[in-house]
Every structure is written in structure tokens, then in C-alpha cells.
Amino acid sequence: MILMYHHVAPPEAVPKPQTPEAGWNFIHSPKGFERQLVELKQRGYNFVSLTDLVGAIKSNGCEVVKDVAVTFDDGWIDNYIYALPILTRLKIPATFFITTRHIHEGAADQRIMNVSQLQELLAAGMTIGGHTRTHCDLTKVTLEQAREEIAGCKKDLEQALATKVSLFAYPGGAFNQRIIRLTQEAGYAAACSVLGPARNDPSSLFWLYRDVLTESMNSPGDWYRLSPCARRLLEFRVRRRLQQRLQHA
User: Fold this and answer.
1) Which residue in 16, 88, 233, 248 could disulfide with 176, CB within 3.0 to 4.6 Å?
2) Distances in Å between the alpha carbon of 131 and those of 77, 146, 229?
């Protein structure tokens, strides 16, 4: 299972008004985030890096049922301020998918982690992945623009951080066959979607299924996502949504 997060912040740190593209509808409080990770450990889940989870899929033909990888989208500064200390204290690895316009243009953006902070994440054992330069909808730009967004992001991160970047996440979960090909051509080993829940296997390496849990972890949706039986029984719904994505040019 791959968990998807965006913001971890206390109520007083949430900006008002909020911009729609900033993803504040996906938020956990620091206490709630830590409580969720601890409870998953207590339920027998084993936290692994996304790199290791992808490696296990390639080796075993599917992900291990109770292995879980933590991922964050967009690179918000609250990930560094609030989430990183919790992850470090609990010894849980995470992958942070980063947009790079501020790196590419050399312009500071106080809302997003800078190069120094990203280097601290790497030093703490975290993984950095690509998330395009501008967080555009890749299915609504030209082929050349999409190529520049995907490959340019990888180049920005690798040059700035002196590390190999092999994982990608589609902004807004928007992808199709054309975008998958561009992601593969850019040299990424795997890419995350926002589809889920479903069990990942080698066929899903470029649309890795991810799950979003509520902070309380007691909603019907949480039960569904944390039940291996329910996931298997209802996986056809996820596959149907996947086919709709892949059928678009």
C-alpha cells in the first residue's frame, strides 16, 4: 500500500483564503499524522521506502500485503516543518514529490521547500521524486510542453541535489498513454497515480495505486482501504477508472 499526503500542519498554519491548487483539502494535523503512523505500526504494517516497495514488486510480482510506503505531493514547506521530525522520530522513510519551477528559475517560493531543505530530507534518509516543474495538467499541454515538464523536473532535481531521481508522481493524477511514454523516456523507474485502492504489481509501475486515509482512520472508506478482502473484491472499480484514463490520447 502506498499512502498519499499533501499537507501536515496545525490549524493556525493553514492560510486563509486558500487557493484551490494548494491541496489544503488533503491535510492532517501533526498529532493526527503521528497517531496514524503509530496505529498502522500497531496494526502490523511495515513501513518501507517507495524505492524498496517498487523493488519488491519487480522481484516478487506484487507488493507485500502489509508493506506501506509514505508519499507527499508538491513539496510544501509544512512537510519539512511538521512531517519530517515525526518521520525521523518514528524512523519511517518517505518520498517527497517536488515541483521545481522555483529551482529552475532560481526564484524563492516561501510556500515550498528550497534546495537546502530538500538536502536535509535526503540526509535524513528520505527520497526525492519528480512532480513536474509547474504542477500543470500534463494531459492538457502540448507534447513538447509535457516532455519539458517531466524531463526538466528530473534534470532540475538531479543537478540541484546531486542525486539520482527515479520516481515521479502525476500532478492531480492526470495521465494517459502519451504521458506514461514521456515519463518512461525521461528515465523514471516508476510513477504514482491517485487511483486506488488496488494492489500494485509490475503492470502498474507507471500508475502506482495510492491510498488516502482520513486522520481518524474510522470512516467506511478507511475500512475499505485497510481491508485486504474489500480491496480485492472492489478492485474492478479501480481498474475501470484506469482504463478510462488509458483510453484517452
Assistant:
1) 248
2) 15, 12, 32
Q: What is the DSSP letter of 17?
A: S
2-247: CATH topology is TIM Barrel (3.20.20)
DSSP letters spanning 29-93: -HHHHHHHHHHHHHTT-EE--HHHHHHHHHHHSS--TTEEEEEEEETBHHIIIIIHHHHHHHT--
Contact predicate 193/175, CB 8 Å: yes
Other CB atoms within 10 Å distance of the CB of residue 245: 19
3-state secondary structure of 117: helix
Q: Whole-model pTM?
A: 0.96
- Provide the residue ranges of all domains of the chain, joining segments of one domain with +: 2-247
pLDDT in tens, 54-106: 999 999 999 998 999 999 999 999 999 999 999 999 999 999 999 999 999 99
Give first-to-last CA distance, the chain, whole Å: 29
